[in-house]
Description:
By secondary structure, the chain is an alpha/beta fold. 33% of the residues lie in helices and 21% in strands. The chain has an 8-stranded parallel barrel with strand order 1-2-3-4-5-6-7-8, surrounded by 5 helices. A two-stranded antiparallel ribbon has the order 9-10. The chain is globular, with a radius of gyration of 16 Å. The mean pLDDT is 92.
Amino acid sequence: MSPYFIKICGITNYEDAVTAIEAGATAIGFNFSSTSKRYIQPEQAKEIADRIRGKISTVGIFVNEDISSVRSVGAAMKLTYCQFHGDEEPEYVNKFSNAIKSFRVNDSLKNVYFDDYKTAAFLLDAYDEKEFGGTGKSFNWLLAREANEFGKIILAGGLNDENVIDAIETVEPWGVDVSSGVEIEPGKKDAEKVRKFVANARKAFERSLEA
């Protein structure tokens, strides 16, 4: 188990999954929200997951989905984590032992009730009134740094290969998550950007572990 978490999210094809693995990422994300520009059908995601089993962690992203559907997809794909990116309440999220709960952060953490959730980690993303993630927007990283006291924090929102070192040094998170920052277009990754992002993230995490 890696001491840190580097996720390439919005994977829609096998080639991009392989790119993430070869670059040294620790996780890939499949977006099962039908409104997302990076939506992938569970059957298609399962085909990819079966081919890369054991090489990288797999994360399913769900937005206000029926619990039985999440359980069905999670079991079929043997997902490492189920990431809940909508308005899911604690009693919903806490039914999953492998949950990552996402919060969209605006200008404070005052309406984020971390203590109510029993999760493997929390993901903090930039708030957008129209979309649940993948916007490429960033937020005040110092808020994410504050959140470290509540558990493992995964930083998302506006990250790319040029700012990820600064982000990790500022926030000291457990993990980072990127989607639009390493894309040619929604759902299609830029292999060189993926490699640079992961290399820079690993460099920053290794440096922090040595400190």
